[in-house]
Amino acid sequence: MNNIVIIGASVSGHNVAWRLREKNKACKITLISEENYPAYDHLKLPDLISGTISEKDIFLCNEEDYSKQNINLIKNKKAGGLNIQKELVYFKDKGSINYDILVIASGRGPVIPDLPGAKKEGVYRLYTLDDAKDFLKRYIAHPVCIVGSNSFALKLAEAVSEKYGVEIKLLSRVAFDPSQIPQNTEVIHDSVQEIIGEGETQAVKLASGKALGVCAVLFMDNYKSNIDFLKNTDIQVKDDFVLVNGWMRTNNVDIFACGSVVRKDSVVISMMLVDHIINKLGEENVRDINAVR
User: Fold this and answer.
1) Alpha-carbon distance 65 to 54, whole Å?
2) Which terminus of the chain, N or C, has less C-beta within 10 A?
3) Could you tell me the pTM of the whole model?
């Protein structure tokens, strides 16, 4: 049992791969990314938008570093399903990969809601590097609407305002500490019902009936775990989170989960996950040796 597959080149997925390699030089480690990049810090995307950092500053390492660590990075591949009996991960387009131990670190991202006008030009989310690049292509000269109720939404509001010098309409379900609200940001306790405009975003209609003139909308309030590939499996999921025990193991002894797809996660817990996998590898190797004897 030496073949470890990690779904998701998130910060958690990257850290697990790196720590596993530090503790075990012999096992095979494969890190699967939906994107065309090595792992990077998604929380730095607002800084990239504001221009305070460059693209290279968001990456945790480069592809050559993975090669040096003997970690197989597979890019542009999305997990489409699992065959737990055969220990196979099927890719959404074509192909599959075997595993002995599987780690789910596929993350949670914001979803653009299914609203009238949501497919118009000027409607975005910010989760991936490509999302940030798409937004930066937009000509911004008028107010921008951000829908979000967390500190990341505040950081994004500040970044967009700094970059373009425009007013931000922040639609939030919660009340922020006034000292945390960036300049040029108006917090509105309302929700978007429709995107208005001839082909592109020109305004948003709110649940209150009001309309706000904006040139772009960023939806950052409705998050969903990237775990569609678990459908038709018996892996336990509750409220869109993968259920794990204290060792970050799912209800399957060979499948673990970490990062934002689980409710509880931290650097300490991720280290426990790595230690548990290392122990499991050691136990299986001893069994294999005894079987040969």
Assistant:
1) 20
2) C
3) 0.90
Domain 110-219 is of which CATH architecture?
3-Layer(bba) Sandwich (3.50)
The Cβ of residue 133 has, within 10 Å, a number of other Cβ atoms equal to 13
Distance separating alpha carbons of residues 62 and 120, to the nearest angstrom: 35
- Alpha-carbon distance of 62 to 37, in angstroms, equals 9
CB 105 within 8 A of CB 16: yes
Cα distance between residue 227 and residue 79, in whole Å:
9
Cα distances from 230 to residues 16, 87, 89, in angstroms, run 20, 13, 10
User: What residues are paired with 15 via a beta bridge?
Assistant: none
Question: Domain-by-domain residue ranges, the chain?
Answer: 3-50+58-107+226-292, 110-219
Distance CA 73, CA 240 (A): 27
Q: What is the pLDDT of residues 222-279, one digit of tens each?
A: 999 999 999 999 999 999 999 998 888 999 999 999 999 998 754 445 566 777 787 7
Homologous superfamily (CATH) of 3-50+58-107+226-292 is: FAD/NAD(P)-binding domain (3.50.50.60)
Domains 3-50+58-107+226-292 and 110-219 share a fold: yes
Q: How far is the first Cα of the chain from the last one, in angstroms, to the nearest whole number? A: 17
The amino acid at residue 89 is: V
Task: Tell me if 111 sits within 8 A of 133, measured CB to CB.
Answer: no
By the 8 A CB rule, do 124 and 134 touch? yes
Bridge partners, residue 196, by sequence = 203
User: Distance between CA atoms of 76 and 84, rounded to whole angstroms?
Assistant: 23
